[in-house]
């Protein structure tokens, strides 16, 4: 019978010799500048971020707690700060088809400037236009037009009266209108005297009255046309005054945006629409109070606003956006509605951007687990990446679940690098069951969970501890405490020849060791403080109730 050789004590724990370190405490060490043990993964990240080809988005594999997010974001921030700022994207009113707002691309930082310019233009015209239409000059010009048509009418009536007088006919003005009657000495002949006239005279009078009546009817028939002409001239005068004021202001803006043809076309459409809606500028604002909020009932002034979707002027370089709640609408944007008089209405100013708009021209960071948990979010993300466009459309509209009137915004071109973070399980499941996944995410960066245990890695681990301690405001660690942390890391890795890269657990141990060192009034963290933290973790138990019985387990030591 073969005898079983018992394990030797030194085999159970590969101790770390503090004597290999030349420093006294981690305060003597510089911060760690390189990433420990993740050179291959960071090379993949660098490749995926640099290559600008279709489908070369990035999937970062690894277990939670390995600082994948912070490492990748740190690299991207360094890279993005040197890249060109992306353009601004805005939505403008489509004056010919209001339900199809137009997308406008502007140079970096110009979106907010255009929005402010248009807001000032509308505010100025709303105060300046009523003043012009209340001026003495405007009233005089209106009076001149009305007097011109009144004099023309009176002149024709006077000519008719003169013609009638030659035939001894008088033109009478009555409340019902005009009447013709025989006269003598410019006074109408009474009926009893008219009956005494010879029949030949009566026939002549009737013939003359009929001719004059036809002439009068022609004069009266021209009155509606002349009223329309007068109204058109007054309307044209109003348009001319409005055009003069609008053109003066817009010409100043045209000089500012002379190099942007799309903006100049927008100014032309605004000018034409403002002239057509001159009466809205002349009238005071019509508003109602809804639930304590004042709402302007006519939307004319809102049509000249600029809805800025993405404007990245606050930070230099390309944008880096992390979406913590990647719902479908949070990714691709949405069209909101407001309730007015019991009905849901919308407007192009209610178009809200999604994470894809905000990250356009830069980088979008997402957790694949969160994306897959949201209905239609994964399909919406893939559709946008495949089409290279962001098409804002509500799920209710796509599946005909609601009949509310909505908008059809013009799609915005998409140029974004998407970085997904997830466990290996998600990566391989998507590779297996989603044929589009490998076409859209061609780069995988697999973060190692352990590194080889060598003298060099021991020193790098010491630098890592020094960096975390300074960043977190912890006490310095002496070299014996560093050695104990390294031993804990090997135990956590489950291999005496390796060290764990699960940074969350290591950082937690450093914080807890700092707590026990401060509780003992130590100036530095000692090995005994680290051991206290390890012992506390080992003795900590949780009671979890599952299916009617209780489980007990201890944390890893």
Would you give an account of this structure?
- The chain is an alpha+beta fold.
- It has 3 domains: 9-37 and 448-554, Helicase, Ruva Protein, domain 3 (Orthogonal Bundle), CATH 1.10.8; 80-128 and 267-273 and 282-441, P-loop containing nucleotide triphosphate hydrolases (Rossmann fold), CATH 3.40.50.300; 133-251.
- The strands form 9 sheets. A 5-stranded parallel β-sheet has the order 10-15-18-1-19. A 3-stranded antiparallel β-sheet has the order 3-2-9.
- β12 and β13 form a beta hairpin.
- α4 (110-133) packs antiparallel against α7 (199-256), α5 (136-166) runs antiparallel to α7 and α17 (455-472) packs across α18.
- The longest helix has 58 residues, at 199-256.
- The radius of gyration is 43 Å and the shape is rod-shaped.
- It starts with 8 loop residues before the first helix and ends with a strand.
Structurally, the number of domains stands at 3
Low-confidence stretches: 287-297, 541-557
Give the N-terminus to C-terminus distance in angstroms.
36 Å
- Number of helices in the DSSP assignment: 20
Fraction of helical residues: 40-55%
Largest sheet: 5 strands, parallel
By CATH reckoning, the class of the largest domain would read Alpha Beta
CATH architecture of the largest domain: 3-Layer(aba) Sandwich
User: Can you count the beta strands?
Assistant: 23
Structural class: alpha+beta
Largest sheet, order of strands side by side? 10-15-18-1-19
What integer is the average pLDDT?
A: 83
Which word captures the global form? rod-shaped
For this structure, the CATH topology of the largest domain is: Rossmann fold
Radius of gyration: 43 Å
Strand content: 15-25%
**CATH superfamily placement of the largest domain:** P-loop containing nucleotide triphosphate hydrolases
């Amino acid at each position: 019978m073969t005898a079983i050789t018992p394990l030797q004590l030194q085999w159970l724990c590969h101790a770390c010799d503090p004597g290999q370190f030349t420093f006294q405490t981690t305060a003597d060490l510089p911060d760690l500048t390189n990433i420990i043990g993740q050179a291959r993964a960071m090379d993949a990240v660098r490749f995926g971020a640099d290559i600008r080809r279709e489908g070369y988005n990035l999937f970062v594999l690894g277990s939670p707690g390995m600082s994948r997010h912070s490492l990748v974001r740190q690299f991207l921030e360094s890279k993005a700060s040197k890249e060109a700022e992306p353009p601004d994207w805005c939505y403008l009113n489509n004056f010919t088809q209001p339900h199809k707002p137009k997308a406008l691309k502007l140079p970096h930082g110009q979106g907010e400037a255009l929005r402010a310019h248009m807001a000032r233009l509308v505010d100025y015209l709303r105060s300046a236009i009523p003043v012009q239409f209340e001026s003495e000059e405007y009233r005089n010009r209106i009076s001149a037009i009305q007097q011109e048509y009144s004099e023309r009418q009176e002149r024709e009536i006077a000519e008719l009266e003169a013609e009638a007088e030659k035939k001894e006919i008088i033109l009478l003005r009555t409340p019902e209108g005009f009447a013709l009657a025989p006269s003598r000495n410019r006074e109408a002949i009474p009926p009893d005297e008219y009956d005494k006239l010879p029949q030949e005279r009566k026939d002549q009078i009737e013939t003359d009255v009929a001719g004059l009546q036809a002439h009068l009817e022609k004069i009266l028939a021209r009155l509606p046309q002349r009223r329309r002409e007068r109204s058109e001239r007054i309307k044209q005068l109003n348009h001319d005054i409005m055009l003069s004021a609008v053109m003066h202001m817009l010409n100043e803006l045209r000089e500012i945006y002379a190099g942007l043809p799309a903006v100049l076309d927008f100014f032309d459409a605004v000018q034409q629409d403002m002239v057509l809606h001159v009466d809205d500028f002349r009238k005071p604002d019509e508003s109602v109070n809804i639930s304590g909020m004042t709402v302007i009932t006519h939307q004319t002034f809102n049509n000249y606003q600029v809805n800025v979707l993405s404007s990245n002027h606050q930070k230099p370089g390309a944008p880096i956006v992390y979406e913590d709640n990647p719902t479908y609408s949070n990714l691709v944007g949405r069209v909101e509605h407001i309730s007015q008089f019991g009905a849901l209405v919308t407007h192009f100013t209610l178009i809200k951007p999604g994470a894809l708009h905000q990250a356009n021209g830069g980088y979008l960071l997402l957790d694949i687990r969160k994306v897959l948990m949201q209905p239609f979010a994964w399909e919406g993300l893939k559709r946008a990446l495949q089409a290279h466009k962001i098409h804002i459309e509500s799920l209710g509209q796509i599946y005909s679940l609601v009949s509310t009137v909505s908008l059809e915004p013009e799609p915005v071109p998409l140029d974004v690098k998407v970085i997904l973070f997830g466990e290996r399980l998600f990566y391989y499941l998507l590779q297996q069951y989603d044929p589009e996944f490998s076409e859209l995410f061609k780069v995988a960066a697999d973060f190692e969970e352990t590194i080889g245990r060598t003298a060099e890695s021991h020193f790098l681990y010491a630098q890592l501890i020094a960096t975390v301690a300074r960043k977190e405001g912890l006490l310095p660690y002496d070299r014996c405490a560093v050695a104990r942390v390294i031993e804990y890391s090997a135990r956590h890795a489950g291999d005496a020849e390796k060290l764990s890269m699960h940074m969350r657990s290591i950082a937690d141990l450093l914080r807890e060791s700092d707590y026990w060192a401060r509780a003992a009034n130590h100036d530095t963290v000692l090995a005994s403080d680290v051991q206290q933290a390890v012992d506390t973790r080992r003795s900590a138990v949780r009671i979890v109730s599952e299916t009617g019985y209780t489980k007990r387990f201890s944390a890893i030591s």
